[in-house]
């Protein structure tokens, strides 16, 4: 009988292996790892079968205490298995070829020599001054927005004084604004009207209710001119406070003191299905109204309470109130949605007892915090099970509320069905709200007076924000004058992160409403987002409550497409000693602290692999008059830095900016689909290059702006005004420009066959300068420093870094990237991996090129049973035979394609390690692999391992990748790696075994809502780095380039072999017939537009397969037979007859529905807005212009940025809800009175059509909707083609009645025309 091995042995083994792998020191280790030999060079050697250890050879044969043989020896590498080749030799040859490509084709040695020859000057590094500058810019930005807010507030308060004497109540509904008023605006990401505003109001609004909208429009327009960063401006009155989108902002403004609320929802057998539906809508409306300042608890009630989490798993939720963060509200809403009716009577007394106990527990835990009042929101039909139950309920309330000195207010909500008698039910709920103890002969248990609540009767979910949105009124608290700042949230209008600032408006002491402004988060945090981290430091922004607003672990706000879960900074700076520093940050206005950090406890944001320990310094400063704190973290002490001296650019007379569509060169050509030039490189300046990145992103680039950029960059006299660029940009442009000659020489070297496979060459600097050849247009929002190829090169300085294949957004199909770092210049070029990186160079190659390279270096790779592959240090395949099969997915892991090998190599713990990190923004635990690039020798099958697949793997020297060769000898696989076919969810999230094979996946990350800590201590992992930004597709309205030549003339038809074909730019090897079902009898090479992915007439992701079909040879006309005229005559007669029948039936149909003509004609039809799903687009295929973009467009919305009583709801969770359902109810609720707003709250992420829209003059085809929510922890990955878009010239909007009064309005309309 086997027994368990003592845990100490396993722990010791893990610790020793861990120390060995990560420190690479020469040290004595335990017997369990003696087969790992250490060299002073730090390379790891493998212990093969047959090798002897003179001292402890018996270690590998001795059985462990449990009888299990721990023999982890591998087979001796046998060249005969692979035709006599030695994989180490082949890896060195492959390394030499890759190094040659890097040095010669990219120009690494040339560029490094250029930087070594440049003049440098030393400057003092002053981090305190850097922090002060950023804090000053943030202070100024917030001061401007608060000034706008106060101006709007003063205007409204003045208007109210006139309203008292002469009512101001005219309004214009948002749904009545003509569609022609709205114009696409790049800053908003949707169609807006900047000429007017509009009103949203409930049906039952009072006739003379205050509405200052008409008078605010001009004020708002002036504000927008002064401060272009403003997003939305709005006023919400007390009487019209039904704005669902800003319901939490409204409550936080009028009741800024924290609310303490327990929501009790009855789901017993007394409720009908309609009443249960209404009760759920009411509960979720309450949750939508709360903010992170408030505390809330939710439970269901039937015969006993039902809690969101089982008390055995979480002691917090069943016993206390938690902060009403977005995550908590989302979680509670999901719980409410999933409540089912129970076949049991409701125990009302137990429900109130449970609610009071939660409040009592919260008060006990809130030491030092005074809680004035709490509230119980009781949602029920009010049906009692007996006549005496009423007294029992009142007795329970009296006892518990008496203990709390009657600080608890009870609001009751009676859910009823129309037409049913509910007199008694309403009576008991009214008594409960008033706490009418005398009526039931119940004694008061406290001398303090009772604060009466209110009872509201509700029979539907329509206008819930009006009927139950004022639940806070019994609290009777005053609103302060100071501005209220919200946490970032996802704005449904343009799917970008937004922040709100609001203030209450008063008439004397009477609250009349709130004034608010919404801000682009991209604007608010731009100084933090685009801070240059090359000096081993970074910046983050937090609130005075500790919530993280911006951090290097976050994506840029403009690239964020999910609602981030608000997380405490502790989780991102999870180090020993940070708790004390955090406390000082939140309590002191400014300061600095030093923290000693040991190696092995570093954050994923940091890179200090060269040191055993280091000191991290935190410096912070609070932004005046706000709730924000900016923090600068130094990872190393740097006293001086080197910067380039002023470089002359006179030797670069042909400096060309990338906007070739604005300033067209004489030699312009088309590089695939984009305008380009092959006579010089072009320069792209990312947002990071500008002093005000948001201003650059908001403004459309014009020809004059481009000319100003070029003039400044070429100016050696320093007399031309800086157009808003950072100081280092000019030198970076001049330095990178010196590689231009080398690139031109390589490109025009006709004997170089590599050029057929090289898509482009480029270089990027940390300042955001990007130079590419052939020069082409780059998407304005792109940031090369956030790309995979740039960051992977920084991870492996001095190495040739390979990036797995991905789809090129500029039309070249699937490509792979080789990149390499450039170091800061040094005398005699004496560089080390620890030198500062000043640039990264790269080259895009066709995906097939690396397969062809493998076959040239290792001819046996072409054998039928032999598979050669290249994988990177994370296990993703860079080259593999299955990647070039028809319709194959390109992004593949070794666990997807080589499952037998993956199962075996997991037993080599020195080679591969499963790793975990916490992604706090979407609350997932990411599982991935790290492969040891310090491997020396050959990895082969274990002696007792898998033998169906004989494999050898070795590191490719000088790279981040590995070479593998597999000889598959079995017909069936004997092992597999489980992978989810639906999403990335791990199949077993309860445990993770190092030797169990599974694909890279993710698991939910559960949080303790009471403390903000992790629910499971075992989930404490490092924070994940931010997601790598995918290349952004170009979205510019290019004119047609039909008469422009191609920069590269493809010769696909002349290529006879598959490898030659797929390695050439723009070529595809046609192997499958249409739809990919049957094989082509004689495979051939063709333009990828005709045969994308190896399938004839396959839909191209660029939408350009249309051209391929249009260019096909027309069929030869056939000579008609005499039967033709006869058949034609018969068909003509038939058509005439059919037309007559149709006209007759149509006439009869119109007569029977004549009443429709009595309605006034509305040219701006809104009926299609009711559709839950958009109509299916046409499958017709037609040609279009040359505006090629990836089909990821979202439904453009028509919106006015000047708004009153805005009324579409904030999204319930962005792209991911972790399995929870949406918070916003879609019943016959809020939007029944505002049907034109409904499309903006549809679910997102609906896959778009794969077809190409028809080029119909005068009508814009409906874009695909992307409002479908994902129920998986992360947004679903789906593949879509690139439709060819018809370019519609902008039209000038003309108002028919220019003298009419335009009211201040806000519009949310979806453009589906």
Structure description:
With 1313 residues, the chain is α+β, with helices and mostly antiparallel strands. It is 24% helix and 20% strand. Strands 6, 7, 15, 16, 17, 18 and 46 form a 7-stranded mixed β-sheet that branches. Strands 8, 9, 10, 11, 12, 13 and 14 form a 7-stranded mixed β-sheet that branches. It has a 6-stranded antiparallel β-sheet with strand order 27-29-28-33-32-31, with helices on both faces.
Summary tags:
single chain; 1313 residues; alpha+beta; seven-stranded mixed beta sheet; 47 strands; globular; disordered N terminus
SSE order and pairing:
Blueprint (H helix, E strand, L loop, with lengths): L6 H17 L13 E2 L5 E2 L41 H20 L1 H10 L2 E5 L2 H39 L17 E3 L4 E3 L4 E3 L13 H14 L3 E8 L9 H8 L5 E7 L6 H17 L5 E7 L3 E2 L15 E2 L2 H13 L9 H18 L8 E7 L8 H15 L4 E8 L7 H12 L20 E4 L5 H4 L16 E2 L3 E3 L4 E12 L2 E11 H4 L1 H4 L7 E7 L4 E3 L27 H10 L2 E9 L14 E10 L5 E7 L5 E5 L23 E4 L2 E4 L4 E4 L7 H6 L4 H12 L12 H10 L3 H8 L10 E7 L4 E5 L1 E2 L11 H8 L5 E7 L6 E10 L13 E10 H11 L8 E7 L4 E3 L14 H4 L1 H7 L6 E8 L4 E8 L3 E2 L2 E2 L8 E7 L5 E8 L32 E4 L53 H5 L4 E6 L6 E9 L17 H6 L12 H30 L44 E3 L2 E3 L103 E3 L3
Parallel strand pairs: 2-38, 5-45, 6-46, 7-46, 8-9, 8-12, 12-13, 13-14
Antiparallel strand pairs: 1-2, 3-24, 4-5, 7-18, 9-10, 9-11, 15-17, 16-17, 17-18, 19-20, 19-23, 21-22, 22-23, 25-26, 26-30, 27-29, 28-29, 28-33, 31-32, 32-33, 34-35, 34-41, 36-37, 37-42, 39-40, 40-41, 43-44, 45-47
Helix pairs in contact: 4-5, 7-8, 9-10
């Amino acid at each position: 009988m086997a027994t368990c091995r003592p845990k100490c042995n396993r722990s010791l083994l893990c610790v020793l292996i861990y120390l060995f792998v990560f420190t690479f020191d020469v040290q004595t280790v335990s017997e369990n790892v003696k087969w790992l030999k250490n060299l002073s060079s730090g390379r790891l050697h493998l212990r093969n079968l047959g090798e002897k250890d003179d001292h402890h050879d018996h270690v590998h044969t001795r059985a462990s205490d449990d009888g299990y043989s721990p023999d982890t020896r591998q087979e001796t590498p046998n060249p005969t298995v692979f035709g006599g080749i030695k994989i180490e030799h082949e890896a060195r040859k492959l390394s030499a070829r890759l190094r040659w490509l890097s040095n010669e084709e990219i120009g690494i040695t040339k560029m490094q020599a250029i930087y070594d020859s440049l003049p440098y000057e030393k400057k003092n590094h002053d981090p305190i001054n850097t922090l002060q500058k950023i804090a000053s810019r943030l202070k100024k930005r917030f001061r401007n927005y608060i000034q706008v807010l106060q101006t709007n507030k003063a205007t409204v308060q003045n208007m109210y004084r006139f309203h008292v004497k002469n009512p101001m109540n005219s309004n214009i509904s948002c749904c009545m604004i003509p569609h022609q008023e709205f114009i696409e605006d790049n800053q908003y990401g949707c169609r807006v009207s900047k000429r007017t505003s509009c009103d949203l109001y409930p049906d039952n609004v009072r006739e003379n209710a205050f509405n200052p909208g008409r008078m605010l429009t001009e004020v708002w327009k002036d504000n927008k001119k002064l401060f272009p960063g403003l997003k939305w401006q709005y006023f919400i009155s007390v009487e019209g406070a039904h704005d669902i989108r800003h319901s939490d902002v409204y409550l936080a403004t009028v009741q800024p003191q924290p609310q303490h609320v327990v929501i009790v929802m009855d789901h017993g057998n007394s409720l009908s299905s309609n009443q249960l539906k209404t009760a759920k809508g009411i509960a979720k409306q309450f949750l939508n109204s709360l903010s992170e300042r408030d505390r809330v608890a939710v439970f269901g009630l039937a015969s006993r309470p039902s809690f969101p989490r089982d008390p055995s798993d979480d002691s917090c939720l069943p016993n206390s109130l938690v902060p009403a963060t977005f995550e908590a509200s989302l979680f509670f809403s999901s719980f409410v949605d999933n409540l089912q009716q129970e076949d049991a009577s409701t125990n009302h007394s137990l429900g109130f007892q449970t609610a009071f106990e939660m409040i009592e527990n919260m008060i006990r835990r809130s030491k030092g915090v005074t809680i004035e009042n709490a509230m119980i929101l009781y949602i029920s039909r009010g049906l009692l099970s007996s006549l005496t139950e009423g007294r029992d309920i009142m007795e329970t309330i009296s006892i518990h509320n008496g203990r709390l000195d009657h600080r608890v207010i009870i609001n009751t909500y009676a859910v009823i069905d129309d037409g049913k008698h509910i007199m008694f039910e309403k009576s008991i709920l009214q008594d409960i709200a008033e706490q009418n103890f005398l009526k039931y002969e119940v004694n008061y248990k406290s001398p303090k007076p009772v604060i009466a609540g209110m009872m509201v009767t509700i029979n539907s979910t329509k206008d819930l924000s009006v009927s139950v949105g004022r639940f806070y009124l019994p609290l009777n608290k005053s609103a302060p004058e100071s501005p209220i700042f919200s946490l970032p949230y996802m704005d449904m209008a343009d799917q970008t992160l937004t922040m709100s600032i609001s203030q209450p408006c008063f008439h004397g002491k009477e609250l009349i409403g709130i004034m608010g402004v919404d801000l682009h988060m991209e604007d608010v945090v731009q100084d933090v987002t685009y801070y240059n981290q090359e000096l081993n430091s970074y910046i983050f922004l937090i609130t005075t409550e500790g919530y993280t607003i911006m951090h290097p672990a976050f994506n840029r706000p403009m690239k964020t497409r999910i609602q981030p879960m608000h997380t405490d900074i502790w989780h991102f700076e999870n180090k020993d000693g940070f708790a004390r520093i955090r406390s000082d940050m939140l309590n002191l206005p400014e300061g600095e602290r030093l923290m000693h950090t040991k190696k092995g406890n570093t954050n994923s944001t940091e890179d200090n692999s060269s040191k055993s320990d280091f000191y991290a310094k935190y410096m912070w400063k609070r932004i005046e008059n706000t709730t924000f704190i900016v923090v600068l973290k130094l990872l190393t002490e740097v006293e001086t830095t080197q910067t380039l001296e002023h470089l002359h650019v006179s030797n670069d007379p042909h400096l060309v900016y990338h906007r070739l569509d604005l300033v067209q060169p004489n030699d312009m050509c088309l590089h695939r689909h984009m305008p380009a030039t092959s006579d010089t490189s072009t320069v792209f300046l990312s947002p990071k290059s500008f002093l005000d990145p948001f201003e650059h992103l908001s403004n459309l680039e014009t020809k004059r702006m481009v000319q100003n950029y070029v003039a400044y960059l070429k100016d050696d006299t320093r007399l031309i005004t800086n157009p808003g660029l950072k100081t280092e940009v000019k030198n970076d442009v001049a330095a990178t420009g010196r590689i231009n000659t080398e690139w031109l020489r390589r490109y025009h070297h006709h004997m170089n066959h590599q050029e057929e496979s090289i898509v482009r060459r480029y270089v990027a600097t940390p300042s955001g300068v990007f130079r590419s050849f052939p020069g082409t247009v780059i998407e304005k929002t792109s940031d090369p420093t956030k790309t995979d190829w740039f960051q992977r090169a920084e991870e492996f300085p001095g190495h040739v870094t390979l990036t797995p294949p991905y789809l090129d957004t500029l039309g070249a199909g699937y490509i792979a990237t080789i990149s390499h770092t450039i170091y800061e210049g040094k005398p005699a070029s004496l560089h080390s991996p620890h030198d500062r990186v000043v640039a990264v160079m790269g080259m895009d190659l066709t995906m097939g090129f690396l397969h062809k390279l493998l076959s040239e270096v290792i001819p046996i790779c072409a054998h039928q049973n032999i598979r050669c592959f290249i994988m990177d240090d994370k296990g993703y395949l860079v080259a593999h035979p299955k990647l070039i099969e028809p319709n194959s997915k390109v992004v593949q892991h070794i666990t997807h394609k080589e499952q037998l090998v993956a199962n075996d190599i997991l037993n080599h713990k020195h080679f591969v390690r499963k790793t975990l990190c916490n992604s706090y923004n979407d609350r997932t635990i990411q599982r991935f692999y790290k492969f040891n690039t310090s491997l020396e020798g050959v990895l082969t099958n274990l002696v007792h391992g898998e033998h169906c697949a004989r494999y050898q793997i070795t590191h490719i020297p000088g790279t981040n990748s590995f070479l593998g060769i597999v000889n598959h000898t079995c017909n069936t696989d004997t092992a597999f790696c489980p992978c989810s076919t639906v999403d990335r969810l791990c199949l077993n999230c309860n445990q993770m075994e190092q030797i169990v094979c599974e694909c890279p996946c993710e698991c939910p990350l559960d949080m303790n809502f009471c403390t903000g800590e992790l629910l499971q201590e075992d989930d404490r992992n490092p924070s994940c780095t931010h997601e790598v930004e995918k290349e952004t597709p170009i979205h510019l309205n290019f004119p047609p380039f039909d008469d422009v030549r191609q920069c590269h003339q493809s010769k696909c038809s002349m290529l006879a072999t598959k490898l030659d074909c797929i390695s050439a730019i723009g070529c595809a090897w046609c192997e499958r017939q249409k739809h990919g079902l049957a094989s082509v009898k004689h495979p051939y090479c063709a333009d990828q537009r005709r045969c994308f992915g190896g399938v004839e007439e396959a839909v191209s992701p660029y939408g350009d397969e249309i051209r391929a079909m249009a260019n096909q040879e027309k069929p030869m006309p056939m000579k008609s037979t005499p039967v033709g005229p006869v058949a034609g005559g018969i068909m003509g007669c038939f058509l005439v007859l059919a037309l007559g029948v149709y006209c007759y039936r149509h006439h009869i149909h119109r007569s029977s529905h004549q009443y429709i003509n009595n309605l006034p004609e509305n040219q701006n039809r809104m009926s299609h807005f009711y559709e839950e799903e958009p109509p299916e687009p046409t499958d017709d295929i037609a040609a279009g212009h040359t505006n090629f973009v990836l089909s990821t467009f979202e439904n453009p919305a028509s919106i006015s940025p000047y708004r009153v009583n805005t009324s579409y709801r904030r999204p319930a969770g962005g792209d991911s809800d972790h399995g929870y359902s949406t918070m916003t109810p879609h019943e016959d609720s809020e939007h029944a009175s505002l049907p034109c707003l409904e499309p903006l709250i549809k679910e997102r992420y609906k896959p778009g059509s794969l077809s190409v829209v028809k080029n119909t003059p005068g009508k814009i085809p409906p874009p695909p909707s992307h409002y479908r929510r994902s129920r998986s922890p992360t947004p679903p990955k789906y593949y879509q083609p690139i439709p060819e878009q018809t370019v519609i010239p902008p039209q000038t909007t003309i108002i028919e009645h220019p003298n009419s009064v335009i009211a201040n309005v806000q519009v949310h309309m979806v453009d589906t025309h």
